Amino acid sequence: MIIPKELPAVGDFVIIKITKIMPHGAYCRLTEYNMDSYLPISEVSSGWIKNIHEFIREGQQDVAKVIFVDPEKRSVDISLKKATGKDKKDKINDYSLEKRAEGMVNKAIVASKQEAAKDALTLELSKHAKTYNELVNAIFEGKDPLSSIKEKEFKQALYDLVAKTIKPRTYTVAYSVDLTTTNTKSGLNSIKEALMEIEKKGVEVLYMGAPKYRLMATDSSYLKAEEKIKFAQDILEQHKNLEFSMKSIKVQAPQ
Fold it and tell me: How many CA atoms are closer than 13 Å to the CA of 205, on its beta-carbon side?
């Protein structure tokens, strides 16, 4: 959050650090809110717990779900067992992206020598986005969320940092193809022509040893990459003297 909330809401996932373990629960620091919360022993793990120290330790950092909030007393209860592995992974990813985006904003403030105006800038930024990551993503997508910002040096510094730091994400799909011809005279030429047409559509063609080929397409989304493969399939179907079968294969992630 550009302007942090005073308290989390019930159902929120929060980053915690266990600071003190008691016989029937533990006190935890909420990293994003700079306040303490309570973790009841019944919310540590499913099933009966004989010794709480077998499940958690002081200094442990984790992700928990908020299950109770008393705004007047600024009291918050949390649960570890109600946060699934996916919940934790998503929260940590969101938190990491938010801290990275906040870091870029702070670097832009320093680079443009606007430290004295940081509070005013932060307030102005909050009018354009709820989170730093939302702001940075808008800039990355070519939008101009800071059109009303008067500090041009800061704006340019931030836009330059975003362009330098964030690289476009790409997705690759691959298919194995068994490709043969029913025409013994001109069939080979038909295969060559079809594969050349496919390459012009932005699909990489790899010869794996007759009659096997591999088609690979890369784009900014899986849908767009799959669309390229569909173009390749249409081209093969247009060559009536060709017979083929296609099968999706897993693409090995880069090392």
Answer: 23
